[in-house]
Amino acid sequence: MRTTIVILIGVVLAVAFDAVTTVLNRRAGRSVDSTRGFLWTWLAFTLADFGIGVAAGHGAVVELAIHALVFSVPAAAALVLARRRQLQGGKS
After folding, report:
1. In the chain, where the domains are located
2. CA 57 to CA 39: how far, in whole Å?
3. pLDDT truncated to tens, each residue of the chain (92 aa)?
């Protein structure tokens, strides 16, 4: 259950980063890419959470498998949102 909640938090953060980027791009009239910022932020969170899990006595292999999923699902969502934003920007 905790893994699902963390993945959902990551997806919500990816959407929030995308929404802020959309607003900034409209206001400033320039192109801001938040995908990289989100990916680095989410990677740092995932690595910290991995370290906490291993320090708590969970096996590193199990934690690695779980955190690969925890990182990859929100990262994929962020990349899909960035691609969608890029395609919509090309139409206007």
Report:
1. 2-87
2. 27
3. 899 999 999 999 999 998 988 888 888 777 778 899 899 999 999 999 999 999 999 999 999 999 999 999 999 999 999 898 888 865 44
